[in-house]
Design goal:
This protein is mainly beta and 443 residues long. It has 2 helices and 27 strands. A 6-stranded antiparallel sheet has the order 22-23-24-25-1-27, with no helix packed on it. A hairpin with a 4-residue loop joins strand 20 and strand 21. The longest helix has 13 residues. The relative contact order is 0.17.
């Protein structure tokens, strides 16, 4: 018996949703720009990890430039080794920048994140195969950051393996980490699996105290496997602020209790988190950290998690380390397990105070109000097999994922302002849609 699921736009309240385009790479490795009616407005035959439409202020005013993965490396290890070259394309698909062949080892090995900086350089999250002495004699997939100039030269570098003692591992944590590496030193996802790296940008903390750790050039990173969110000082390369990896025992997985829906409250156990970033100036919550807390298995040693699995989106005040806003399925009147992605995923604050959420494992993109009401929902119809790192295989593939079955996985979506792309204005009267079942009400 075939499994049938609704795809495309399944719910839409035009008067409550923030209007924008949405960019994402489908599991068929095609990057598409859709409108809130679900209509594909443009596409590129490349995947992005993640794809990102660039702010015209950083492209000399040119509209519609996109950053994507341009080729695979062919490395049989796959995962974070699989990326060959990355680059920037125009709206019409012309390559205006490509990098990877000149990288150490002849491949970009970029994975999970990248950023076009204000100075024209690019910050790339990369994999660096090397021996990390504190982990043993084997070559491992160390994670690091490169700042790459337009000419392809690396002008700044940071390697995670040089800073492990700054992450706060306990004795039991070091033991678990070393045992994990010993079992699988060639882990295709890396022993830390860093999944985001972004500069802090102008922010209220730095304006209030120019000597604070939140300098605009400092870099916020996330290690999924270690349950760490941290700030790297761009000048010293030291980790100068962090959340995790451990929380008080009474703080483990408390979000499933009724009392844990009250905010503000101290941050409790995060696990397997993705895409922490400072909410940008001019947006509601500016200066706070927004993060998709997957509540997927992670940690050295493994973090305590609740019985009834459910993901959540957290807004955290970095000064008090308190949760000041959150979204869980229960905020939409549903059981916690109905919103869950144990890996991938992200959240983005929107100008009207709504939040765009990517429940990536299920290919579900949706927008919620500050009160937790779902006002737009889209389920990707684009499925594919995960065979990245094997370019001779021609079936649709999810970059860096190896699966025996098809998946609708979406790594990270982006809300794109209308004036960033060379399209006519969207239709003036978008259509309200409600295909949701009675069991999944939009509250």
């Amino acid at each position: 018996m075939a499994f049938v699921r609704h795809t495309g736009v399944t719910y839409f309240e035009p008067e409550s949703a923030h209007a924008s385009y949405i960019l994402f790479t489908g599991a068929d490795s095609v990057t598409r720009l859709i409108d809130l009616d679900g209509e594909v407005r443009h596409e590129w035959p490349f995947a992005g990890v993640p794809p990102r439409i660039l702010d015209p202020a950083r492209t000399g005013g040119r509209l519609g430039d996109v950053g994507v993965q341009l080729s695979l490396s062919g490395d049989p290890r796959g995962g974070i080794y699989a990326n060959g070259t990355v680059g920037q394309l125009t709206w019409d698909g012309e390559t205006v920048w490509e990098w990877g062949a000149q990288a150490p080892g002849g491949a970009a090995r970029q994975n999970h994140d990248w950023e076009l900086l204000a100075n024209g350089n690019r910050l790339l999250l990369v994999t660096i195969p090397r021996v990390v002495p504190s982990l043993g004699p084997a070559v491992v997939g160390d994670q690091g950051l490169y700042e790459v100039a337009p000419d392809g030269s690396i002008v700044w570098e940071w390697r995670a393996g040089d800073h492990l003692d700054e992450l706060g591992f306990s004795e039991a944590g070091w033991k678990a980490l070393r045992e994990t590496v010993a079992r699988d030193p060639d882990d295709a996802w890396g022993y830390l699996e860093m999944n985001s790296a972004t500069t802090l940008g102008p922010n209220r903390w730095h304006r209030a105290d120019p000597d604070s750790v939140f300098h605009p050039d400092n870099i916020l990173i996330s290690s999924r496997k270690a349950n760490v969110v941290a700030v790297i000082d761009k000048t010293t390369k030291s980790i100068v602020w962090k959340l995790g990896p451990y929380f008080a025992a009474e703080a483990g997985a408390q979000h499933q209790r009724i009392s844990a829906h009250k905010v503000p409250r101290p941050l409790d156990q995060i696990s397997g988190q993705h895409n922490p970033h400072l909410i940008a100036d001019g947006l509601p919550g500016a200066g706070n950290i927004l993060v998709f807390d997957n509540q997927g298995g992670a940690g050295y040693p493994p973090a305590p998690l609740g019985i009834y699995a459910g993901s959540r989106v957290l807004e955290i005040d970095p000064a008090t380390e308190q949760i000041v806003w959150q979204y869980t399925a229960e905020d939409s009147g549903l059981p916690p397990w109905t919103f869950h992605s144990s890996f991938v995923s992200n959240a983005q604050r929107l100008p009207n105070g709504n939040t765009l959420i990517t429940e990536g494992m299920n290919g579900r993109l949706f927008q919620v109000t500050p009160q937790g009401d779902v006002v737009w929902e889209y389920v990707s119809p684009y499925e594919g097999l995960g065979v990245a790192g094997e370019p001779e295989v021609h079936e649709p593939r999810v970059p860096g994922v190896d699966r025996l079955s098809t998946t609708p996985l979406v790594y990270r979506a982006q809300a794109v302002p209308f004036d960033w792309v060379p399209l006519e204005s969207p239709r003036s009267a978008p259509t309200a849609v409600d295909l949701r079942s009675p069991a999944r009400p939009a509250t």
